[in-house]
Design brief:
Helix content: over 70%
Protein name: DUF2059 domain-containing protein
Largest sheet: none
Strand content: under 5%
Radius of gyration: 18 Å
Structural class: mainly alpha
């Protein structure tokens, strides 16, 4: 954790609070930018390609894929958190 990297600078609770605040801001930013990001990423696809992507994304396999991707993002942001906070109700 930050408090372990810089001993004596911040109390453990204060450093953890700062990290948690940053995680929350980053997740809010990701959520807010998601639609624009997806529009940009898939901008060059043809209508049939978009239809194929949409069919996959709505399928059980596609939903599982995106749940795994979301879990990976949460895990990446959860450094220093307890395991119970990694999967908050999805």
């Amino acid at each position: 954790s930050l408090s372990q990297m810089i001993p004596g600078l911040l109390g453990g609770g204060q450093a953890q609070g700062m990290l948690e605040g940053q995680r929350e801001r980053l997740m809010a930013q990701i959520s807010a930018d998601l639609n624009n990001t997806l529009l940009y990423v898939y901008r060059d696809l043809s209508d049939p390609e978009l239809e194929e992507f949409s069919t996959f994304a709505e399928s059980p396999q596609g939903k599982a894929y995106y749940q795994a991707a979301l879990a990976a993002i949460r895990a990446g942001l959860a450094v220093g958190q307890s395991a119970s906070s990694l999967n908050p109700g999805q």
